[in-house]
Write a structure and sequence with these properties.
Layout lengths: L7 H8 L2 H12 L2 H8 L4 H16 L1 H11 L8 H19 L7 H27 L5 H32 L5 H24 L17 H4 L3 H31 L4 H28 L2 H21 L5 H12 L2 H23 L4 H29 L11 H26 L6 H13 L4
Helix pairs in contact: 1-8, 1-9, 2-7, 2-8, 2-9, 3-4, 4-7, 4-16, 5-7, 5-16, 6-7, 6-9, 7-16, 8-9, 8-12, 8-15, 11-12, 11-15, 11-16, 11-17, 12-13, 12-14, 12-15, 13-14, 13-15, 13-17, 15-16, 15-18
């Protein structure tokens, strides 16, 4: 094994928790908002505001978690204990959210979301921070997060097949959601245990300075960090809006059945899985930020394909779903790989390892994007008179759906690509940083 290069076995074991973590993230933004509004009877605005409020309040937790993780010292590492601790919270949240019954209040939804987002923050922050330590190499980090994202997409595909399979056995409005909850309660602890038990975590130097809460504003002084966070926010908001409205767009604007809409979402993430190696390859041949900007342009092309497909045409619906999903993997894997490189630059400047704090800030921008996505889209649909329970919305409501699913995300992708044009931390610059870090004395 070449220095700094991981075996496929270790990459797979490290990425295993994503099978559960990704699977809870998708229903929270795609299935649960419509489930609580259309099936459980909560008002659209109440659902949108609940998701947005909990997500935004949860953001304040991330810097604290990041600092606590950076300051953690245990025999098994900084981040693995947190991954183990956050998993039971997600299991409890799954039981509450996915097995709710008609008549639940918005407070019940808020409680379940608070547990879900809190546990998800702990687990995802621990896993992604841990991944940045597995190798110092520029290309290898793209490979690590490429595997991480691939397992995320496999988790999404697994959770998406459950409603289809479950409804074929026991058709009903709540069967699919219940099957997702059961999957999560089983998969979350099993997948987390594989990583914690069988993958080592590099230990920090005992004499290294410890990160502090007051450090996080200092990170904003970095040009690279600022651009990563802005691009991640814009891309996350764009994908979040499309995810929140995917089922509505296919069923209400394009005339597909709800059953095919689920298949379309499955094919969308299959496209993401197929496209993942492409973005890793492109990042290796050029630079990570160049590959990410190219993915933004590709995302716009995917939206155009969805716009022009004929209504209720199954063949074109399948093709368009796969094409539009090809860029999906790029943002998650490349942004986290870029942040690992930015962490090296910060460590060289300050002498402090702020890995957890950096990924906490990154997790925060992801939360802002997803929170605004659900809030903006559902409140926006409500304002234009869109009826989630009707198949006959007026032209104004349908136009509003198109604008929120296609128009605004397209603008956000363009802005993200512009932010990445003058990104400073290239491959050559990172090689210089790693050489300087290796020359420093231990600790």
């Amino acid at each position: 094994m070449r220095q700094g290069r991981l075996t496929r076995r270790n990459l797979a074991l490290f990425a295993a928790p994503s099978l559960g973590l990704a699977a809870i993230g998708l229903p929270l933004t795609v299935y649960l908002p419509s489930f609580y509004s259309a099936q459980l009877g909560l008002d659209l605005s109440a659902v949108g505001l609940a998701f947005m409020t909990v997500r935004l309040l949860d953001i304040g937790l991330d810097p604290l978690l990041g600092v606590l993780m950076d300051r953690t010292r245990t025999p098994i590492g900084r981040f693995k204990p947190w991954l183990a601790a956050g998993t039971p919270l997600l299991m409890l949240a799954s039981a509450l959210l996915f097995f709710a019954k008609p008549g639940v209040s918005s407070n019940y939804l808020i409680l379940g979301l608070a547990l879900a987002y809190g546990g998800w923050s702990i687990c995802v922050l621990a896993q992604t921070s841990w991944g940045s330590l597995l190798s110092p190499l520029y290309n290898e980090r793209s490979r690590i997060y490429g595997w991480w994202q691939a397992f995320n997409l496999v988790g999404l595909l697994l959770i998406l097949t459950l409603p289809i399979a479950a409804n074929s056995v026991d058709p009903g409005p709540t069967t699919g959601v219940r099957s997702m909850g059961l999957y999560l309660i089983v998969m979350l602890p099993l997948s987390a245990a594989l990583a914690v038990l069988f993958v080592k975590e590099p230990a920090p130097s005992p004499s290294a300075p410890l990160a502090r809460m007051s450090d996080w504003p200092k990170l904003m002084r970095s040009n690279a960090v600022r651009r990563i966070l802005i691009a991640d926010l814009l891309i996350g908001l764009a994908f979040g809006m499309d995810g929140a409205l995917f089922l509505f767009f296919f069923t209400k604007a394009k005339g597909f059945s709800s059953g095919f809409a689920n298949v379309g979402l499955l094919l969308y993430f299959l496209g993401g899985l197929l496209g993942g190696p492409l973005w890793t390859w492109l990042a290796r041949k050029t630079n990570k930020h160049t590959a990410l900007a190219a993915a933004c342009v590709s995302s716009i092309a995917g939206l155009l394909v969805l716009y022009v497909i004929p209504n209720n045409n199954l063949l074109w619906g399948c093709i368009a779903s796969v094409i539009s999903g090809l860029p999906y993997a790029a943002s998650n894997q490349l942004v986290r790989s870029l942040m690992a490189d930015a962490g090296d630059e910060e460590k060289l400047k300050s002498g402090v390892d702020r890995t957890g704090l950096l990924y906490a800030v990154l997790t925060g921008t992801s939360k802002i994007g997803s929170a605004l996505a659900v809030g903006v889209t559902f409140v926006g649909l409500d304002r234009v008179g869109f009826d989630a329970t009707s198949d006959h919305n007026g032209p104004v409501a349908t136009m509003g759906l198109h604008a929120l699913f296609l128009g605004l995300p397209g603008v956000l992708f363009i802005l993200a690509a512009v932010v990445l044009i003058r990104y400073p931390l290239t491959r050559q610059r990172h090689d210089e940083i790693r050489e300087a870090l290796e020359r420093q004395p231990a600790g």
